[in-house]
């Protein structure tokens, strides 16, 4: 019986779909930073088995660090079975093509980097498939299951390795990289051989006959090259012949061979200035002739999979709504599978089984299976949520001052009473090439239910420059940083005030990266509108951010009209929060990691110094040691979450003044220590 038809599971999980019992308590910060979530679904080739991965944050009882990642199998009779769980970190999950084993990447004691392990059905322990001398970044089984193509870091040059052994560990920016090579392991001979490719391999896909590989190759393994310069190539594995298939402009997403072996579907940017790979294309494998399948699509394609000749299954977004959609290549028609007020985060089809990772306003990501025309929930990762009181969440749309429709996700204050005015916090997403879907909205850096619990409206806007509404909409920041896109935030405030919901004097804003830039701009250039701001890893001075980031070329091509800072210095100064630091009257909390390669730690530091020197406005700068572009450690996630909530509560409470002293330096960690 295929997994999707499992009557046992349908009965077992009836309770999950029942109405929520009366909630007993509110969500807490500790709940948020220890919330577990499903990250991927993996049905076996025949659809008889379903595996999934789950992110499991460390608890206060663990040593500080990033989340664990476990692998589980859903069984009709035994339920959820751990395969590689606990204090583990697995990734790269796949099935052998014959379905006899599930494979994954993990670094175990004594392993030189992550290795490929196989859990054969019916056995209790996984075994290492082969030894990869330099570890494995990603891999793909050949369709016959007799070989694995994989990528790995190429060896460090001998002279540099010897220098490092002697203690010389300096780095040379943009130069001392080692490439990402392509390798082939063959089961019959148990040997690994290197496959020559000019450049670094970021993605790979086998042709159905196992003779060729489609590759996403960039000149260097740098983040910038991975963003902007991946191009599709084809490699004949036996002869070694290789050629560029598609000169795609800008960013490149997923690659997938058609069942006929004569075509390749892929996701790409529409042009070099398109902020995201979100349009769908079809290339002829022999000639490289490209057909655009979604010209003018006012949405975004995230993932693709062939489900038959001329038929693709896609995960797409149209604004705040996401869905799984079957796409006919010939007619270019979408046929959405039934959905709901959910956010689809992954989807996989094998045999008769269609599985997805879905979050909703009521729960974080869970496993669902499509059966008999409906999505059926299969996991209950955080059963304690049934006892938590959650506030109202809905899609909200309004007309901006220039007549455009803007949409986002709105959380209402707990015990909302129409006609009463409440404080508002705008949570601006980063990127800006990103957008919000209507799913679970609460995380360590997004606050949602925790703020609404405290009596706030919480607004997650898909402002102009967001993805999900087509290429033109996503380009609205080009040449107009913090222009029309920021006016959307001000127009949202006007809309909420006009509805009688929000107190204009108690509006806060927060976000990270580009969202941090938004918050910093709000606190300086637009300070009159905002009574509190939380700015995480923010851009404070655009030109120097550009000159100290690991993605300068992405900046050049995508956001800044192919002009370098020295060619537009006055404009960049005009759009920098640092320029207006002396005008800041908004209490400003700045936070960031000391090892951030994307937004150099000097950015929040400069803004802190400038506001502190020029004003009496409350300002604080919190640095997290060892953290990059966002916090990975459980302790620093908790600290950031609690500090942010406390900052908003200090300055958005009734009768609060902007000149009030900042909250005490030290936090109350009693909730954390009690859980140890």
Task: Spell out the blueprint of helices and strands.
Layout (H helix, E strand, L loop, with lengths): L6 H6 L12 E2 L2 H5 L3 E7 L6 E7 L11 E8 L3 E6 L6 E5 L5 E6 L8 E6 L6 E2 L9 E4 L5 E7 L4 H8 L14 E7 L4 E5 L4 E7 L5 E7 L4 H6 L2 E6 L5 E5 L5 E6 L5 E6 L10 E6 L5 E3 L7 E9 L2 E8 L2 E8 L4 E4 L6 E8 L2 E8 L2 E9 L2 E4 L10 E2 L3 E7 L5 E7 L10 E7 L19 H6 L3 E6 L8 H4 L9 H15 L3 E11 L1 H11 L7 E5 L5 H6 L4 H8 L9 H6 L13 E6 L8 H13 L4 E6 L9 H19 L17 H5 L2
Parallel strand pairs: 1-30, 33-34, 33-35, 35-36, 36-37, 37-38
Antiparallel strand pairs: 2-3, 3-4, 4-5, 6-7, 7-8, 8-9, 10-11, 11-12, 12-13, 14-15, 15-16, 16-17, 18-19, 19-20, 20-21, 22-23, 23-24, 24-25, 26-27, 27-28, 28-29, 31-32, 32-34
Describe it for me?
The chain is 17% helix and 34% strand. By secondary structure, it is an alpha+beta fold. The chain folds into 2 domains: 354 residues, TolB, C-terminal domain (Neuraminidase), CATH 2.120.10; 284 residues, Alpha/Beta hydrolase fold, catalytic domain (Rossmann fold). The chain has an 8-stranded mixed β-sheet with strand order 31-32-34-33-35-36-37-38, with helices on both faces. Strands 2-3-4-5 form a 4-stranded antiparallel β-sheet, with no helix packed on it. Strand 23 and strand 24 form a beta hairpin. The longest helix has 19 residues.
């Amino acid at each position: 019986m295929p997994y999707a038809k499992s009557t046992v599971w349908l009965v077992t999980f009836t309770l999950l779909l029942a109405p929520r019992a009366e909630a007993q308590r509110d969500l807490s910060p500790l709940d948020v930073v220890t919330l577990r979530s499903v990250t991927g679904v993996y049905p076996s080739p025949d659809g008889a088995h379903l595996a999934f991965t789950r992110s499991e944050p460390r608890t206060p009882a663990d040593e500080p660090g990033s989340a664990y990642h476990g692998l589980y199998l859903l069984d009709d009779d035994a339920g959820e079975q751990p395969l590689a769980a606990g204090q583990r970190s697995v990734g790269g999950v796949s099935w052998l093509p014959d379905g006899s084993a599930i494979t994954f990447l993990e670094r175990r004691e004594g392993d030189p980097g992550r290795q490929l392990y196989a859990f054969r059905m019916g056995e209790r322990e996984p075994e290492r498939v082969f030894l990869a001398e330099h570890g494995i970044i990603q891999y793909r089984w050949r369709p016959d299951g007799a070989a694995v193509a994989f990528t790995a870091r190429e060896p460090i040059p001998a002279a540099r390795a010897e220098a490092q052994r002697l203690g010389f560990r300096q780095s040379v920016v943009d130069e001392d990289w080692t490439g990402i090579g392509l390798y082939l392991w063959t089961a019959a001979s148990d040997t690994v051989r290197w496959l020559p490719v000019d450049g670094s391999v970021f993605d790979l896909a086998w042709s159905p006959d196992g003779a060729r590989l489609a590759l996403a190759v960039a000149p260097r393994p740098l983040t910038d090259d991975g963003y902007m310069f991946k191009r599709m190539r084809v490699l004949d594995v036996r002869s070694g012949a290789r050629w560029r298939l598609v000169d795609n402009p800008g960013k490149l997403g997923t690659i997938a061979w058609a069942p006929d072996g004569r075509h390749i579907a892929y996701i790409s940017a529409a042009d070099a200035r398109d902020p995201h790979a979100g349009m769908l294309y079809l290339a002829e494998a022999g000639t490289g002739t490209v057909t655009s399948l979604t010209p003018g699509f006012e949405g975004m394609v995230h993932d693709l999979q062939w489900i038959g000749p001329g038929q693709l299954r896609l995960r797409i977004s149209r604004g705040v709504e996401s869905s799984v959609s079957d796409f006919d290549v010939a007619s270019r028609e979408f046929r959405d599978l039934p959905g709901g007020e959910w956010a689809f985060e992954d989807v996989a089809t094998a045999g008769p089984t269609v599985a997805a990772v879905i979050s909703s306003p009521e729960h974080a990501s869970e496993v669902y299976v499509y059966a008999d025309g409906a999505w059926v929930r299969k996991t209950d990762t955080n059963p304690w949520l049934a006892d938590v009181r959650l506030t109202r969440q809905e899609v909200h749309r309004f007309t901006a001052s220039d007549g455009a429709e803007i949409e986002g996700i709105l959380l209402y204050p707990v015990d909302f009473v129409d006609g009463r005015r409440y404080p508002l916090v705008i949570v601006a997403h980063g990127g800006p090439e990103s957008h919000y879907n209507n799913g679970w909205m609460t995380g360590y850096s997004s606050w949602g239910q925790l703020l609404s619990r405290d009596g706030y409206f919480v607004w997650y806007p898909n402002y102009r420059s967001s993805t999900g509404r087509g290429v033109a909409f996503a380009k609205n920041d080009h040449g107009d940083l913090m222009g029309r896109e920021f006016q959307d935030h001000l127009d949202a405030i006007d809309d909420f005030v006009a509805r009688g919901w929000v107190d204009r004097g108690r509006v806060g804003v927060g976000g990270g990266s580009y969202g941090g830039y938004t918050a910093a701009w709000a606190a300086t250039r637009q300070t009159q509108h905002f009574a509190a701001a939380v700015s995480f890893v923010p851009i404070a001075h655009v030109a120097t951010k550009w000159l100290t980031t690991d993605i300068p070329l992405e900046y050049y091509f995508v956001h800044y009209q192919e002009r370098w800072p020295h060619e537009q210095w006055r404009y960049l100064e005009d759009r920098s929060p640092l320029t207006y630091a002396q005008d800041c009257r908004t209490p400003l909390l700045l936070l960031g990691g000391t090892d951030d390669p994307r937004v150099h730690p000097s950015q929040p530091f400069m803004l802190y110094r400038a506001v502190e020197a020029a004003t009496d406005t409350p300002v604080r700068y919190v640095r997290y040691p060892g953290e990059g572009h966002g916090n990975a450690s459980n302790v620093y996630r908790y600290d950031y979450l609690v500090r942010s909530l406390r900052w908003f509560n200090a300055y958005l409470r009734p009768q609060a003044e902007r000149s009030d002293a900042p909250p005490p330096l030290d936090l109350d960690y009693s909730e954390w220590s009690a859980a140890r």
